[in-house]
């Protein structure tokens, strides 16, 4: 039995490709014996196995189809169906519309479509999607990233975590994050872009302030910033506690002060 409470293990936070000591975006969220893999970016499956076997997961949740958030679904498919794991039922997979066909397009190498649905039970996300997974309530909102993309709020009845996925600043993310205990927010852009598709660190701080969150964790820091620079810049627009999602770290989600 695991300890009760909401806990986030950072599997990786690199973008747009993995680094020697940092896989791409991926997190293991646990509450008691409930385990959810949030985003499956390149390299995160290996890091996930430091904590849990694939077959012990309760669900996988994918924010959008870019490879640095979803590529390890491909290797997870082979692990679940063709390796040493014994899958008793398909693993619930929550992801953007069309995710099953995108996986099958890549995995199919002959005249018959690869049996993606033998490995995963697909639940397509939409704005306002809700799911109950063990003691956790997941609420999804559509965000702005130039393709179907989603942020998620996870509540266990005592504390709440919001994960931005990849997105420009937008009202739906702010609404989703309102008074959450911890906001895990991307800060990919060193400078604003046109059109915006990511947060800058200052944007992340502004979103956290507007939502009235208890704590801000910066993640998905782009290659033209150091984590320290990103945290310092976010502090210019958010006065609360700020951290960085360093790979390999464990973050306990605690109530806001």
TrEMBL record:
Gene3D superfamilies in UniProt = Ribonuclease Z/Hydroxyacylglutathione hydrolase-like
Q: Which residues form a coiled coil?
A: none
Q: Name one GO molecular function term.
A: 3'-tRNA processing endoribonuclease activity
Q: Which SUPFAM superfamilies match?
A: Metallo-hydrolase/oxidoreductase
Q: Which residues form the Metallo-beta-lactamase domain?
A: 23-198
What InterPro entries does UniProt report for this protein, alphabetically? Metallo-B-lactamas (IPR001279), RibonucZ/Hydroxyglut_hydro (IPR036866)
Protein's name according to its UniProt entry: Beta-lactamase domain protein
């Amino acid at each position: 039995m695991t300890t009760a409470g909401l806990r986030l293990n950072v599997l990786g936070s690199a973008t747009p490709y993995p680094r020697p000591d940092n896989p791409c975006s991926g997190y293991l969220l646990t509450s008691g014996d409930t385990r959810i893999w949030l985003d499956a970016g390149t390299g995160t499956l290996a890091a996930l196995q430091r904590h849990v076997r694939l077959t012990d997961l309760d669900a996988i949740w994918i924010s959008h189809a870019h490879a640095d958030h979803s590529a390890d679904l491909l290797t997870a498919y082979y692990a679940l169906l063709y390796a040493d794991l014994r899958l008793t039922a398909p693993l619930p997979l929550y992801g953007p519309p069309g995710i099953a066909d995108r996986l099958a397009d890549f995995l199919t190498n002959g005249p018959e479509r690869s049996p993606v649905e033998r490995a995963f039970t697909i639940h397509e996300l939409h704005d306002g999607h809700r799911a109950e997974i063990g003691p956790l309530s997941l609420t999804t909102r559509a965000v702005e990233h130039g393709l179907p993309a989603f942020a998620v709020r996870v509540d266990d009845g005592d504390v709440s975590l919001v994960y931005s996925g990849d997105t420009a600043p937008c009202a739906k993310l702010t609404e989703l994050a309102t008074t959450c205990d911890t906001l895990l927010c991307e800060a990919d852009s060193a400078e604003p872009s046109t059109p915006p598709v990511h947060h800058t660190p200052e944007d992340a701080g502004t979103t956290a302030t507007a939502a009235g969150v208890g704590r801000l964790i910066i993640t998905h820091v782009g290659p033209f910033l150091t984590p320290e620079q990103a945290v310092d810049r976010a502090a210019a627009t958010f006065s609360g506690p700020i951290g960085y999602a360093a790979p390999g770290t464990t973050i306990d989600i605690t109530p806001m002060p």
